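User: Just a sanity check before I run the rest of the batch. Below are the structure tokens for the first item. I only need the designed sequence back.
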């Protein structure tokens, strides 16, 4: 067995010892006999000091060949230095160039336009801001699994290739042998409902796809969604779960990712206020508030990004907007017994103008009502027969929701556009790299 390479993040524990680390050059500078190289390896930043009279001619020559983003390794003594990033620097005894990098490395230490950066996403990901966002993404993903695991939910995986079922927005189709078209999943929910009847409490965590012709800061064509589905939860219990879940995610990032939040210059005082419970506002009241604020929205319409921003401006936590009109929402939501023009659903809107991060609802558990809604929406009945069966054989009150991962990351990181919140974003006009 070989030993695991030493990473920059472990150097503070090795002060006074010899170490060898490998990484990439972010910066070099030299003043005659003393040279400095800054290395990054994904776990941290290390300042390496090369003193000409103390190293071999080969090492000094190797230093001369270093260019931005070439890969190299260094050996030397780990020394404490309070001013250095990470609190240590390396007194180099040996330096080896591994992979040279041409002088025209695309991402230079200057301002670049977003299109250029997206064209060079494979390199853009190496920069400190992007590394911080991806660390927070990873923390949130882990926290999601921890939250549900601790609460006895079963993680289940639902199909990516589906018959035509799901949400209203655009479908990506692909040929599927003799079965005609298959469609990339827009949601795992309908399968989640079947699984909830088998296992009680489940969640899915998977990629979802929407051929939406929306060029906005919050739409991707491929995004990741977390969809819990719980047997015998009504719409109120569903919202309790959502606010506990989102509070947990935010607190977890605050606890464990402060350096990344700092790198992003996130105002953490705003995140510290995110604690359950969150206000629950009826759609009808929300429309009245919006009209008072000058919005042109009419009762019956779904709320757009601008309306959502107007609603959250009065709050410091996320808020729920509940019980939307039937025609604004998907066919599977349960009719509201108190007002049958509406359905038992909620959207969770993030503060600071980030808008909808969750869509959730209690599901229609009445066979006839569901059948009627499927017909009303002119959906292909054959594709939904198994879904209707769930109401024919042991129907049950159940609820669930979908959290958009990238929108949640964008809000927690304070990045206005979700394209930076996924390693390789898929947008209407972008399939590369
Ligand atoms: O509100 P949506 O469409 O709800 C559903 O898909 C339900 N089946 C969820 C459920 O009840 N199990 O989408 C849920 C969330 C949105 O609130 C948003 O955060 C995110 O998914 N989302 C998108 N994120 C990025 N790009 C897009 N194009 C998105 N569309 C939805
Ligand atoms: Mg929605």
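Assistant: Here's the designed sequence for the first item:
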């Amino acid at each position: 067995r070989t030993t695991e390479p030493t990473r920059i993040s472990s150097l503070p524990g090795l002060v006074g010892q010899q170490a060898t680390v490998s990484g990439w050059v972010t910066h070099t500078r030299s003043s005659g006999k003393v040279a400095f190289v800054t290395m990054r390896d994904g776990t941290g930043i290390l300042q390496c000091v090369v003193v000409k009279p103390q190293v071999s001619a080969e090492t000094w020559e190797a230093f001369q060949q270093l260019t931005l983003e070439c890969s190299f390794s260094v050996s030397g003594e780990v020394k404490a230095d309070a001013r250095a990033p990470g609190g240590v620097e390396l007194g180099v005894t040996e330096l080896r160039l591994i992979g040279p990098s041409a002088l025209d490395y695309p991402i230079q230490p200057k301002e670049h336009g977003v299109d250029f950066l997206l064209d060079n996403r494979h390199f853009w990901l190496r920069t400190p801001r992007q590394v911080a966002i991806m660390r927070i993404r990873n923390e949130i993903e882990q926290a999601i699994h921890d939250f549900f695991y601790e609460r006895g939910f079963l993680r289940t995986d639902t199909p990516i290739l589906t018959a035509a079922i799901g949400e209203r927005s655009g479908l990506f189709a692909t040929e599927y042998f003799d079965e005609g078209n298959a469609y990339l999943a827009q949601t795992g929910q309908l399968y989640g409902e079947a699984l909830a009847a088998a296992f009680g409490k489940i969640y899915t965590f998977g990629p979802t796809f929407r051929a939406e012709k929306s060029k906005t800061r919050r739409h991707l064509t491929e995004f990741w969604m977390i969809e819990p589905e719980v047997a015998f939860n009504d719409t109120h219990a569903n919202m309790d779960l959502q606010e506990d879940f989102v509070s947990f995610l935010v607190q977890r990032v605050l606890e464990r990712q402060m350096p990344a939040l700092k790198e992003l210059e996130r105002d953490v005082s705003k995140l510290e206020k995110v604690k359950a419970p969150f206000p629950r506002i009826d759609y009808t009241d929300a429309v009245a508030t919006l009209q008072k604020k000058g919005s042109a929205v009419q009762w019956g319409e779904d709320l757009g990004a601008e309306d959502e921003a107007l609603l959250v401006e009065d709050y410091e936590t996320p808020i729920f907007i509940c019980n939307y009109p039937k025609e604004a929402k998907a066919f599977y939501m349960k009719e509201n017994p108190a007002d049958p023009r509406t359905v038992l659903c909620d959207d969770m809107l993030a503060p600071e103008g980030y808008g909808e991060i969750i869509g959730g609802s209690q599901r229609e558990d009445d066979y006839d009502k569901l059948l009627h809604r499927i017909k009303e929406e002119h959906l292909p009945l054959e594709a939904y027969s198994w879904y209707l069966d769930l109401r024919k054989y042991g129907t049950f009150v159940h609820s669930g929701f979908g959290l958009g991962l990238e929108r949640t990351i964008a809000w927690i990181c304070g990045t206005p556009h979700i394209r930076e919140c996924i390693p390789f974003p898929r947008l209407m006009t972008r399939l590369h790299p």
